[in-house]
């Protein structure tokens, strides 16, 4: 789920900023799921797309490659306006995220 | 390594933090902006060297923020590199089209990132250098123009327009022509008539202007003192030869306009063919350069031979530098001598030629940048020139200058062979302000008296010979022969002046080594065909209070009282 080799490199690069970065990632990402669901309930696919796009970028930065890939799939759904599929996709994405969050917390 | 100031604009805080850290680790200073508006504000305040800009941001997106930043930066080059996870060609091309300079695709390759930052920094430096140099050039150019204006003012004082404003002259000369190497000078001769000189210096700018200064100085100075154009040219040639660097010289056309002889003597060196147009006829006479330009030959090799052309009133002489012939149209084609000749030929009347040439050249060039200056002058022979003489005595000046003085100048045969003392004599007389007003007449008097003493006295030539055209030629043939053979003889000139401030008396006495003549017969009014057939005698009689011949007729003394009773 997480490319730990790259994560270690990131840790080296960020040094003392590594822990705040991970904490920032978790804080940001936690917020994104309620945001996405709210936007979806309002039928605002563009907003969903922006949020999941950010999640994709951030996840990729913390080396959560699979999560980033999954976010990318959801982003494409949002672009296509697949409202019916998006609810389930967001749920599955959150499951994956929670798993990543656990792993990152352990890593810290 | 100098720290670059890098602005990172990205709404995704994790992305921004990571990129920021990487860029800082590479030794740069980073300022972060979390959206497009903030990016523009921070840019205005901090003026970063380079901007890394996320494309997709809420509010003001990356492309619009970039447009604003580029507009604020004005002529400064601020590279903007777009950050994007998009990788299709069109999206990347869009980034550049919206004003970005480059893009970086996520995830970033750290090596490429640093290389790009470095590369754009070099470009910015280069751009700054370019702007600085441009400003420096503009500054230097302003400075140069300022200097040229000052130099032009100085030059104008030395090479004043002289008598270019005379009614018999029309001319065209660019106001800053001196820096293009073209010079136009005209001065009245003390004895009536005028000297005109058109010069075209090699090169442009300062070297040309520097050469023009002494040229004008000599031209006006010597002409005012009564020197002939040949002597003026000789002096200018020598001066230019000594001051101009090798390869620099002055192409010139010089005209001695003599209304009393109804003729023009022309000297041309290195200038294109010029034309002489008759007032009453169709005939176009072509005048060609026969000499090397001024400033090329050393004094002993300089050829001051002039070509004389009869010129009746209304006849016109057209002179120009190569500017007209080399004037180019927008296709780079030159106007050329043939076109010029056609314009002259096609003109309805000689008096239209000047305007026709200007019109034709203007039409031909039609707004394209001029390579050279189109200097053009038309000189018309006019009888009025005879009367208009240089004067310039002021009331205040009259009491100044030498008052009571005398001098004697004796010229021996070897000197007489090659030296004309008249300009020198005139120069000495001109030191007396009261005499300047009659400088022209005085010059004629001295010239005539000296010519009589030398030609009829020392050389023993009979003036009666000059009465027929054949005799005229013979006279000059003989003169040349006798000058060449001259071994003995002298002319003694005595000048004596007394004055009281606003009036004075000048006595000129000339004695020669010749046999004299029977002046008593002349005094009785019986003589004809002797000394007195010289043209100057009526004038001498008109301004001299007395003319007295002495001895065997080889000594003459004239008295001139100034101011003259009648204005001549």
From TrEMBL, chain A:
Protein transport listed as a keyword: no
Pfam families given in the database record: Hpt
Record-annotated HPt domain positions: 14-107
MF annotations from Gene Ontology: protein kinase activity
Gene3D superfamilies xrefs: HPT domain
Gene Ontology biological process terms in this record: phosphorelay signal transduction system
Lineage: superkingdom: Bacteria
The UniProt record lists the keyword Transit peptide: no
Modified residues (Phosphohistidine): 53
Protein keywords: Phosphoprotein, Two-component regulatory system
Family annotation (InterPro entries): HPT_dom_sf, Sig_transdc_His_kin_Hpt_dom
Protein name: HPt (Histidine-containing phosphotransfer) domain-containing protein
Native source species: Thalassolituus maritimus
From TrEMBL, chain B:
Domain Response regulatory as annotated: residue spans: 5-121
Matching CDD domains: HATPase_RsbW-like (cd16936)
InterPro entries: Bact_Sigma-Reg, CheY-like_superfamily, HATPase_C_sf, HATPase_dom, PPM-type-like_dom_sf, PPM-type_phosphatase-like_dom, Sig_transdc_resp-reg_receiver
SMART domains attached to this UniProt entry: PP2C_SIG (SM00331), REC (SM00448)
Alphabetic keyword roster: Hydrolase, Kinase, Phosphoprotein, Transferase
MF annotations from Gene Ontology: kinase activity; phosphatase activity
Protein name, per record: Histidine kinase-like ATPase domain-containing protein
Organism this protein belongs to: Thalassolituus maritimus
């Amino acid at each position: 789920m997480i490319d730990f080799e790259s994560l270690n490199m990131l840790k080296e690069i960020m040094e003392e900023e590594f822990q705040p970065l991970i904490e920032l990632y978790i804080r940001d990402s936690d917020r994104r799921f309620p945001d996405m669901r709210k936007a979806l309930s309002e039928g605002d696919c563009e907003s969903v797309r922006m949020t999941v796009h950010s999640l994709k970028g951030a996840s990729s930065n913390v080396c959560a490659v699979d999560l980033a890939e999954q976010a990318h799939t959801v982003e494409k759904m949002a672009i296509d306006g697949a409202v019916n599929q998006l609810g389930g996709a967001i749920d599955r994405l959150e499951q994956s995220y929670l798993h990543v969050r656990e792993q990152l917390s352990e890593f810290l | 390594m100098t720290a670059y100031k890098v602005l990172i604009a990205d709404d995704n805080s994790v992305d921004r933090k990571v990129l920021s850290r990487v860029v800082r680790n590479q030794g740069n200073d980073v300022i972060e902006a979390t959206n497009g508006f903030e990016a523009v504000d921070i840019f205005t305040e901090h003026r970063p060297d380079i901007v890394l800009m996320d494309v997709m941001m809420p509010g003001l997106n990356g492309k619009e923020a970039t447009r604003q930043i580029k507009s604020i930066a004005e002529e400064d080059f601020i590279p903007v590199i777009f950050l994007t996870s998009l990788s299709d060609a069109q999206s990347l091309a869009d980034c550049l089209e919206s004003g970005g300079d480059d893009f970086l695709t996520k995830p970033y390759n750290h090596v490429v990132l640093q290389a790009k930052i470095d590369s754009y920094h070099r470009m910015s430096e280069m751009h700054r250098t370019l702007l600085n140099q441009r400003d420096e050039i503009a500054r230097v150019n302003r400075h140069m123009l300022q200097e040229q204006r000052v130099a032009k003012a100085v030059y104008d004082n030395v090479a004043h327009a002289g008598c270019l404003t005379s009614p018999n002259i029309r001319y065209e000369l660019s106001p800053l022509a001196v820096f293009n190497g073209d010079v136009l000078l005209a001065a009245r001769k003390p004895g009536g008539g005028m000297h005109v000189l058109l010069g075209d210096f090699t090169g442009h700018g300062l070297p040309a202007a520097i050469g023009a200064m002494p040229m004008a100085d000599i031209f006006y100075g010597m002409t005012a003192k009564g020197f002939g154009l040949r002597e003026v040219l000789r002096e200018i040639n020598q001066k230019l030869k000594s001051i101009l660097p090798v390869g620099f010289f002055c192409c010139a056309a010089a005209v001695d306009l003599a209304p009393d002889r109804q003729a023009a003597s022309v000297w041309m060196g290195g200038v294109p063919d010029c034309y002489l147009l008759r007032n009453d006829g169709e005939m176009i006479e072509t005048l060609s350069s026969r000499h090397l330009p001024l400033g090329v030959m050393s004094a002993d090799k300089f050829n001051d031979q002039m070509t004389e052309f009869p010129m009746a009133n209304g006849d016109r002489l057209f002179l120009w530098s190569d500017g007209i012939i080399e004037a180019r149209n927008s296709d780079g084609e030159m106007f050329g001598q043939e076109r010029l000749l056609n314009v002259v030929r096609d003109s309805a009347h000689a008096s239209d030629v000047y305007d026709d040439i200007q019109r034709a050249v203007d039409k031909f060039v039609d707004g394209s940048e001029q390579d050279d200056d189109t200097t053009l002058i038309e000189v018309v022979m006019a009888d009025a020139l005879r009367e208009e003489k240089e004067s310039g005595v002021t009331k205040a000046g009259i009491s100044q200058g030498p008052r009571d003085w005398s001098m004697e100048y004796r010229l021996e045969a070897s000197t007489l062979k090659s030296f004309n003392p008249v300009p020198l004599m005139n120069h000495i007389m001109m030191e007396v302000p009261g005499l300047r007003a009659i400088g022209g007449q005085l010059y004629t008097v001295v010239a005539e008296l000296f010519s009589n003493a030398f030609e009829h006295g020392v050389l023993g030539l009979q003036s009666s010979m000059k009465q027929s055209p054949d005799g005229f030629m013979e006279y000059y043939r003989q003169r040349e022969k006798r000058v060449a053979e001259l071994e003995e003889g002298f002319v003694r000139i005595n000048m004596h002046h007394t004055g009281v401030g606003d009036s004075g008396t000048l006595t000129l006495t000339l004695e020669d080594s010749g046999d004299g003549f029977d002046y008593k017969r002349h005094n009785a009014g019986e003589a004809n065909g002797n000394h007195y057939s010289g043209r100057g005698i009526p004038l001498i009689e008109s301004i001299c209070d007395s003319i007295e011949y002495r001895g065997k007729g080889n000594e003459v003394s004239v008295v001139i009282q100034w101011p003259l009773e009648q204005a001549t």
